[in-house]
Amino acid sequence: MAKLPFLVMSDLQAARFREETATDQNRLDPRLIDAGPYRGQYVLPERVMMDPAHISHRDAFRMLTVVSVDVEVAWPSVDE
What we know:
Blueprint: E1 3-9, H1 11-20, E2 31-32, E3 42-45, H2 58-62, E4 65-70, H3 71-74
Antiparallel strand pairs: 1-3, 1-4, 2-3
């Protein structure tokens, strides 16, 4: 199980990040969690907080909660 730190947000917050960065070279596209305790919420990797490309969003990032997400649970593999 790989647990990684993510910034968790609502669908409205995710939409706002997408909208605000739609024309940026380094677009933010929060990912919907499919399963587990954070199902239905959106996340960005915590590392975006220190990315110089997203410096203008640091205050918004700081208002979000950092959670440890088990990526195998959040995004289960789909067998073909």
